[in-house]
Amino acid sequence: MADTSKLKGRSSRMPEPPSPEQAGENLRAPEVAPAEPVRQRRDGRSLRATGRTHPFATRIKPETHEKMLDIAERDGITLGELIEKALEAYER
Question: How confident is the model at residue 44 (pLDDT cuts 50, 70, 90)?
């Protein structure tokens, strides 16, 4: 077992903490919320079951991915539905 007897004497050498009056105004100041809310994307699984079960993996540029997520969120569709609509438009 560790001998903590030497540590007990050290805490008595610590100065007393300042009183709330001496601590400054930051204790009485209101907390400020972040200036801009953090944007959270919806998880596609939470939207709804669509019957799409075949996995599709590919590599795309980050800006393309962001654009796809923005469109899907704006239109209230999944990424799978967005790809299907894009394929239909491409075939036309």
Answer: low
